[in-house]
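Lecture 7, part B: from sequences to assemblies.

Below are the input chains for today's worked example.
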Amino acid sequence: MTVAPPTEKSDIGGRPVPPSGWLGWVTSTDHKRIGLLTAGTSFVLFVGMGTLALTMRAQLAQPEQELVSSHLYNQLFTIHGSGMIYLVFTPFALGMGVYLVPLQIGAPGIAMARLTLLGYWFYALGAAVMLAGFATPLRAHADGWFSYPPMADSVHSPGTGTDLWIAGVFLATTGTIIMGWTVLRKRTYGMTMLRLPVFSWSMIVSCLMVIGAFPALLAALGLLAVGRADPSMFDQNVWNIGYQHLFWFYGHPVVYVMFFPYLAAVAEVLAVFSGRRFFGYKGTVLSLLVFAALSMSVWGHHMFATGQATNDYYSLTSIALLVPAGVEYFAMVGTILGGRLRLAPPMLFALAFIPQFLIGGLTGIMVGTPVIDYHVTDSYFVVAHLHYVLFAGSAFGLFGAVYFWFPKVTGVMLGHRLGRLRFWLLVLGTNVTFLPMFALGYLGMPRRISSYASFEGFGWLNLLSSIGAAFLAAAMTVFAVNVLWTLRKRTLGSAEKAPDDPWGGHTLEWATSSPPPRLNFTPDHPVPPVTSFAPLLDLRQKQKEETAADRSRP
Amino acid sequence: MKRHLSFVVVAGWGLFNGILLAVLAVYGENSIVYWLWGGAVVLLELAAVAVLASSRSGPDQHVRYRVPDRAAGAVVPIAFGFLLIALAFVYGWWLLALAGPLLLVAVALAVRGTTAREE
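Predicted structure of the full complex, as structure tokens:
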């Protein structure tokens, strides 16, 4: 690919800035910087939202505790849920795509880079606005991440906290809608659609869901804003149910936007650390597309309890999700079976993802079945299910991806020993925190309550869950120490330098230097010939065959 | 078809959504649902048309790329301008008096092509 040189200075009104300066970072059109800004911002917010969760677990550790008031507790779970979904997992997934997709398809940059940068700024400012609610007189928004009217109208939820939440979520969601698009139009020579890596395909599919579903959230927020100006609007039930349809039309596909990129990262890791080509590539690509389309059709299962959804249809499509999910599981297991497994930290996270997400997925089918949903709706069973999907599943994919691509992004290796320690702490913490919640929900503990009586019998399960949360906090601390220590050593020049391809990767990003240069590929590190979805593996196999042929010659 | 596979993916995916919507119609739903999902299908087909138009205007696999750094300096003022507009819904329309000049500055930066070009 030919790269036109940057615009000459005479053509522009700006001035050159050093690449490491703050001005260079905040106005850069380099997709890698935008991706890092997005991932970095969402990671900082992840720590903040996790702290809110720890406060909630401390409150629930014992019956009848009064560490925080019920009003503050309502704010904690609202901002924790909103933050994790709107500000952490969704933007991190898209940030990963912004960073990796141009590299994986052999492009020197991203399509519509300035718009992508604008998307980042909308997201970051939206996050600040949402969190600013804590500084208002009546404090932050407190009506849950879905904010159903009439509870979220200005009569039942007065104050500017909710208004700021609406403005913040609107800005942040607009930002995430903008940050999509590139894979379809910037592929390098030889990179046909069916040679795209699984991760790039997952980003295509995520972008399709973003285009199709995310505008519904903007419409829902607009409806809520209008309703807060005139609360009598929500006296008519059509607007309340209409809001729920708008919200969940976004609210279910967003779970897959928070899931597919991490699933695909796991797929890439499994293939690389099994030393094999990813098994069932075409079936996986097709299943991603079918999975995503079905995910647009199941939102009504969140509304079974309203009695105003077509139960049979939404239940049917929810159960049908098992088919594409099964294909993907078959492909993942098929990849590792017979492979020569290397149990480095990225692979540990990828392997743990498989059984843990299975629990989240199967309990999703349970709550997608009306007869079970009526029993467990709005209980801790649902909390356990969504955390097994988003934490035991997506977060493990996220951390596997971080360990996998950290050397490429930073040029140094992340400490393996701390990585392993952190992995075991996280596995233990995740399952001790969230598994008891299934039992709590089944036994009848409602979600979103700040306290419970001792005679209800929820005490020891809640204590167990809170102990697990402490392990999660320890795991995150180990991770933060590992990353900060490694980056500090990089500054001092004593960190272990990462080669271009430390793991024996399959995709194009491993062909360039670590970290990649501004335009990704240079004459020293050209784009290798693209012969399949695993071009570097092809290259290695070809070299091996040629070496063997040379040796066999007399 | 191979030439425009990216268009086929987007259009086909939108069409599959249309089929799922048609199945829902057999079961029956509130009219708001048809407008909602139907609107999303239309949006996806429009995106597919945009992909088609884009791929017809250039090669399917790109061979030339221009570094898009011109006017990148306008992005941050635009973002803050829209932030003020969003806050105007909360704290009053007077904030538009601040948003307007900021957006004008952003337009001027965009027209002038200002950027913090990396050395």
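Note for the exam: Chain B touches chain A through 65 residues (CB under 8 Å). Keep this in mind when comparing with the next example.
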